[in-house]
Amino acid sequence: MRKILMLLIMTLTVFTITIQPDSASAAKKNNNPTQLVKVGKSLVGTPYRFGGTTKKGFDCSGFIGYVFKSNGKTSPRTAADMWKAGKKVNKPAIGDLVFFQTYKKGPSHVGIYIGNNKFVHASSSKGVTVTSMSNSYFKKRYLGAKQL
């Protein structure tokens, strides 16, 4: 009985040690906006697909969800729900979400701010791409930035 108890304690100890680095990694990813940008930019060229949430094709909110999930975070499914859930910021910082009013009233498009006045997003015309916040189409449709 004593051997079984010792074996059980050793097994639990090894199991705990084994999972702690992964948990620490996930925690580090959760708070690393640079990692969000890195993953987002790595997907440039992925085609647009309405309702898409995979590397086969993304819509704007599916793209955000994929990037967040790959960094151990979760996000609401739609741009409008992300807008509702986010915390407003006055000026976007790297990793913040930027929202636009495109085809309907209210937030209908979302991207990730990557710095230097640019954002990465899933464009319906270009797929995943990097665009300037000064772009004539997006500049006049900008609603604001939020943190999730």
From TrEMBL:
Residues 1-26 form the signal peptide. Pfam families: NLPC_P60. One of its GO terms (biological process) is proteolysis. Residues 30-148 form the NlpC/P60 domain. InterPro entries: NLP_P60_dom (IPR000064), Papain-like_cys_pep_sf (IPR038765), Peptidase_C40 (IPR051202). One of its GO terms (molecular function) is cysteine-type peptidase activity. Keywords: Hydrolase, Protease, Signal, Thiol protease. It comes from the Bacteria. PANTHER family: ENDOPEPTIDASE LYTE-RELATED, MUREIN DD-ENDOPEPTIDASE MEPH-RELATED. Belongs to the peptidase C40 family. This is C40 family peptidase. The lineage of its organism: Bacteria, Bacillati, Bacillota, Bacilli, Bacillales.
